Batch of 2 targets.
Target 1
Amino acid sequence: MLYIGFNRKIFTMELDALDKQLVALLQEDCKKTTKQYADALQLSKTAVYERIRRLERTGVITGYVALLNKSKVNRDFTVMCHIRLVQHTKENVLRFEREILKLEEVSECFHVGGDYDYILKINVEDMKSYREFMITKLTAINNIGNTQSSFVINEVKNSPSVHI
Amino acid sequence: MLYIGFNRKIFTMELDALDKQLVALLQEDCKKTTKQYADALQLSKTAVYERIRRLERTGVITGYVALLNKSKVNRDFTVMCHIRLVQHTKENVLRFEREILKLEEVSECFHVGGDYDYILKINVEDMKSYREFMITKLTAINNIGNTQSSFVINEVKNSPSVHI
DNA sequence: TCAAAATTAGAACAATATTCTATTATTAAT
DNA sequence: ATTAATAATAGAATATTGTTCTAATTTTGA
């Protein structure tokens, strides 16, 4: 697979069945010992070690992070916020996205097609702090047309991993 | 902070400034050495080691995972799918959520208030596979009223971490 | 103010990651 | 199909880091 262009993917690394199994395990828990992954895959420590290094080197694995229980840190009030811009000039779009990146309450932000222009996931402590966030930070950004907030009643599933 | 009830949080663990710094570091990169975190926090290895263990033991940290570059594994076609149910009986809701949990293409699913009942994040290879997913898996679930798919044009921000 | 409990530092030890060498398997060209 | 070159693997050797231990220090609560 070959793409032309600047900063685009040049090729898709071929992952064999063992790589896929390994990636699945690492997406579940990246803190097991090499030996544990090796036993699961019926390979030697070295084989697994080299495969992980290759996945890192080729950019398949981008990092390793700790996950938190949001309720334990008082950030379990989640809102999906839909935003419509007034005007879609390139400058407006870029400036909006730049401003959003500064907001620590926003954990996800997607530019989408359809009814609204952006869908954001926002994590705060409670409704009061959401209101505060809205009036002092979000709507302070220029060029926002209107917003629609969908409050999360229940997190059915929330995983950073992708099935391959 | 104290709550009454079954399966609710009993107390919120008090995190001091060092804990918060540490959690922030671990959410960025959980594979550094204890010594590296210790240097950053101006603490000894043991102090950091014990703090991490406590964060794990008290459930603040729920796990450690590898993050992937979705484009490298051909799962960079992302769709935010809004779903309305026909009927909201308890059984219908539970059955719907149970079915959603089985779908590996769905990485996030939130039960929300507002215009729609559920907002899903779906990761597949391309539009063709999304169509396939829609007609064979998603709409095969009973009790779905209608859906609205917002295709992601650009991921402005997509992080599993929360700012505390 | 004092005793009890928790936190921390530094050393000692155990476990694991990483490197090295040799062997085996895979690939690509003839 | 054969062979040379390359890549992947296993097992041993080494280096690094995680984990435990002990003592000292700080914090907490009466």
Target 2
Amino acid sequence: MTDDPIFLKVWRTVAHVPRGRVATYGQIALMIGLHRGARTVGWALRALPDDCRVDGKAVPWHRVINARGAISDRGGGGGIGRQAVALRREGIAVSAGGLVDLGRYLWRGQRRRS
DNA sequence: TGCGTGACTTGAC
DNA sequence: CGTCAAGCCACGC
């Protein structure tokens, strides 16, 4: 596991996010040991296969959003719309602008300093 | 070996 | 609440 590529760790960590909850890139980064690699997490998700499956497990990439609680704009492919729909489908309230209430849906309730 | 790139974060204005 | 700039990490060429 420690020898596995970063993106593999990211996928596995994301796969641990329970249904109906969301996690931020920074949070995922912290869990895999990258205290400042939120961008790397995004990079890893970008490399995620279309099947969204790793090691036979589905990777809920749609549960990963940025620290503002907004869906990242990956610039095309209509991905954000798809992600918003997927989140609502799990019972997560998503505003018209694609914003999610982190204080209510954030996984494990972990938050950074205020 | 070094530079550019990106689904990010945070602090300032 | 909106935009700007700087920082950080891993990967591909």
